[in-house]
Amino acid sequence: MAVIANIIQDVNKYLNKYQDPRTADWFLMSGPFPTLGICLSYIYLVKVIGPKLMENRKPFNLKNTLIIYNFAQVVFSAWIFYQIGLGGWFTGEYSLRCQPVDYSNKPSTIRMVHASWWYFFSKFTEFFDTIFFVLRKKNDHISTLHVIHHGIMPMSVWFGVKYTPGGHSTFFGFLNTFVHIIMYTYYMLSAMGPHMQKYLWWKKYLTSLQMVQFVAIMVHAFQLLFTECNYPRAFVWWIGMHAVMFFFLFKEFYNHTYNRNQRRLKAERAKNGIVSNGCANGHAVLDEKKNGATKLSECYVNGSSEIHRRMKS
Which GO terms describe its cellular component (predicted)? Predict the structure, then answer.
C-alpha cells in the first residue's frame, strides 16, 4: 500500500507542476485518481454489480423519475451552454480559428473557467442514464458505445479543466451541451409514455446530429495543426482524436440500429408476401397481401412503433 501511495503522490506532484492555479483547489481537481476511481467504479457498477443485483428482481417503474431527471438535464445543459456562451462564444471574444487560453482573472474569463468545471461535473450526472437502464433491466441498451462514451468523458474533461479551462477547447463543451439540450428533451418526451411516440419520429436525426457534432469538433480542433496558434498541440490531438473515436462509434451504432431495422422490415415484408406502397411521416397506408387479405398499417418513422390491424376483405 505504501508503494501505491508513493506512486500516486509522485504522479500528482508531476501533474500539478503545470496546472492552472485557478482550479487547483477545486473539487476533484487535486489529482486524476479520484475521477479515475469514479469512472472505473461506474463501469464495474453498470456492467457487473448492477445486472447481478437486478438478475432476480423485477424492473423498477421509473417513469416519473425519468421525466424529472431528463428535465433537470435539459435545464442543466442549457445553463452550461449559456455560461460558456457568455464566457466568450456569444460575446465575440472567442474566435473559431484560434483561441488561446486566457489565464487572467477577467470576469468573462473566470466565468468560462467556472463553466468548464461545471461541464466536467455534468459528465458525472450523465452516469444516471446507465444506472436507470440497469434498474429497469434494459441491459441491451448498455452497449459498448454507451459505456465507453460515459466512462471516459469525465477523465477526458478533467485534463482540460486542470490545464486549459478556457480557450479553443471550450468549443467542444459549447457544442456538446447544445446537442444535449435536444437529446435530453427527446428522452424526457419518450419517458412520458407510448402516446408520445408519434411525436418522436426524429430520433434518427438526433443520432445524425451527434455525428455532425463530432465532425465539427474534429475540424475545429485539427485546423490548429496547420495554423499558428498559442494553444497546446497536445490538447489539439486529445480533443480531435476523441471526436474521431466517438464519430465512428456513433456511426457504428447508427448503422447497426437504423440500417438493420430497415433490412429487417424489408425481409419481413418479403417473407409475408407484402407489396407495400410505402410508409412515411406517420401516415397510414394500405398494404395488399397475396392471400386477398387487406392490412392497414399505421407507421411511425425510424421504427419507433408500427401498429398493424388486419381487416377481412
Answer: endoplasmic reticulum membrane
